[in-house]
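Self-study notes.
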Amino acid sequence: MFKKLFYLLLIMLIVSCDQKKEENQQIFEKTNQFSIEGKIATIYTTAKDTDLRLTKTGKQTFFKTPQALETENSIFVNPNHQFQTFIGIGGAITDASAEVFAKLSPEKQEELLSAYYGIDGIDYTLMRTSIHSCDFSSGSFTYIEEGDKELNTFSIEHDKQFRLPMIKRAIKKADGNMLFYMSPWSPPAFMKGKKDMLGGGKLLPEYNDTWAMYYSKTIKAYEAEGIDVWGITIQNEPMATQRWESCIYTAEEERDFLKNHLGPTLEKEGLGDKKIVVWDHNRDLLSHRANTIFDDPEASKYAWGIGFHWYETWRGGEPNFNALEKVQEAYPDKKLLFTEGCNEAFNANKYQYWPNAERYGNSMINDFNRGTVGWTDWNILLDETGGPNHVMNLCFAPIHADTRTDEIIYTPTYYYIGHFSKFIRPGAKRISTVSSISFLQSTSFINEDGKIVTVVMNSTDDELEYKLYIGANMAIPVKIPARSMQSVIF
């Protein structure tokens, strides 16, 4: 009896190993078809002090080459080592973006939509918006009358004037290929101890269930408008007392709201498939929030992943990319999602300020290399003042509109984002990429159609030469201009 059982287990083990070997061989064969001499790579470049803006700048043919030398700059890509699955890149359509959009001529509106969501543009596939107002609204508002604990007056009528029409047109331009999620900045004033949506404060415990139901009603109202809601974040920047709409949750408070109120409410309302993203704040406290929520099984079961912003650098120092790596290492089943970033302190004289674009490139490469699955910019469109913003928190967007002249202004940031979003498609897998030098930053993905995209950023003042290696001995030589971004596709 035991002998038969032993042989049965041995056979099962052998079959399992053979299946795994076959799967690995299929992956190897699929990815190594690109490591064949004669394959052609196409290069797109955006560079400072040039006319190059996502411009096709050449082609190179892979050839067999000896081992890389210490004297050359090298980027090594190994498609056989694959990591997280990419879900998309995009930006937020806020009230501000929609109000500015409405002021443009029909021709400029179409240009803007094509630039972001068209196949000839940078092809966004991810979208965020606020649940009622945020600072990038012309004023504070909610979807209910003040004091309505039963939510009997709930209505998204306000959003139907500007925001919803733009969102619908954007999704249509993207052929419906859009992951759409929503974030609240503050509960209605009466639900908070300080009775004010602005300036922080906390949700009163007696409104936990009411506020949880508010999310459900918002999701259902948007879906009644034909917009499929992929997910929500629990609270925008839950540790920041801002002069605009804001609300504070400690890690324990967010955990308990999720497991005792929001998660159960969405399940009860038939919305258990919606992705819930916790934190939605800076990288600096990411690990503490993850530890507190994800180590609680009853809370963790409702959380798809954790969202983060990049504003921890306001205190000086470098972005805390290490926090992403540690959270991914500790909780590999949870997803990392960049939910917001923008360049602050708007100045119309700095539309073409190159470090603004490089901040994006640096963040996107490092965020993806540490496991991030999606990346969401802040406002997709602002006006010539960096607004509108009802508390004058004026910022940059990748594209601005001068509403006085009906002009659309493309900043370098738009093109830097496009080096990722245009070529890396949802469903892609990040693959192993290592640069031999710190001043050439790089990441790579393999799309579901087998195309590999390697993005390289040169943030030095010098033109550089490098070799891009695929596998052990196949390479192409590439020149990258000073202060530039490249996408190499093959």
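Second protein, same conventions, sequence then structure:
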Amino acid sequence: MAYKILYYEDKESGSIKADLENLGFEVDIEKCEDTKISIDALKANNHDAYLMDYRLTDGNGLIDAPALAGIIRTESGKDEFKINAPIFMITDESGLKIVNSAQREQDLFDYVMTKDLFRENKQKTGELIVSFIKAYRRVQESGFEVPSILGIDKKEIGLLDYRFERDLLSKSRDVFGITHFTLNYIVRSIGTLIGPDILAARLGVKIDQEQPAWGTLMEILTPCRYEGIFKDFYSRWWMRKIEEWWEREFEGIGRLRSLEAKQRVELLNEKYGLNLLAAEPLAKEDSTKFWTMCFAKHIPLDPSDGFVIDDVTRREWEEPMYISLEGALEKPEWQKRLSPADIREILEYGTKN
């Protein structure tokens, strides 16, 4: 059965409704001409997801999406009402700028997207919406138990930093809080879980999706995969399991992090009969003891060769993001997120060269 979406739009829904229906969703429209009716439509919980256009007052609407979502979030928890489906916002670029300048909006919606990005990536956006719907359902069906939400056995709870578990449990029976926190502070962050780019860097492997050896390696690492909420949209692996796997398979060789990329790849090729290629550094003088990536150029990086990207929202269990010297010089917009001392070092190097 198709998932049902209630689309809040005060004008003609146009192509957005048609695009969603072409993706297999059933779409109802709420015109927002009466605020109470608009809120009651969501409170009825008759839909699997809710989509709000940022501007709901251009036509006959009386309230814009952030204000409407704010009322809904405030009402949640009163009179046994709980939001049990994700709320998305769709906007143009001007609306996105307003949202980005008001951080509180991020706590109102499960996800914010631009109309242009939606149109350019319809299939991917549809998959993301479905992933959120499934995440909400899984959290509720699990009885809000952390292991079930994260797809691990109860005895594997040690995979988590105790502070993450503590903070997640503080979202008691709050589906939005649990999904929002899990997505932003474990699934989309670096640390407890890692994505394919970081995984490849730590194994010293040059990613080539068309090379059969990469696919074979991913199959070998299946027991290390993350199977919790959002797994159908974000491919992730438990870093602790990766390290335990390495120590088992290459006992006595040395810690993964202590080896050069070429050494890691040679061990993998010899052990499993693969023909993986070793990742190469950006500059000849750089180390190949890769453990992260340059987020400006998307290449493997040894943290000792990079600069830490400032992030005041980073939690204790999350690892920092890095940028390479070359990335900072080629993409100066990233320099705003570095410390003053690092910026001086980068600029001095650029002047000399």
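Instructor comment on the second fold: Residues 296 and 327 are 5 Å apart (CA to CA).
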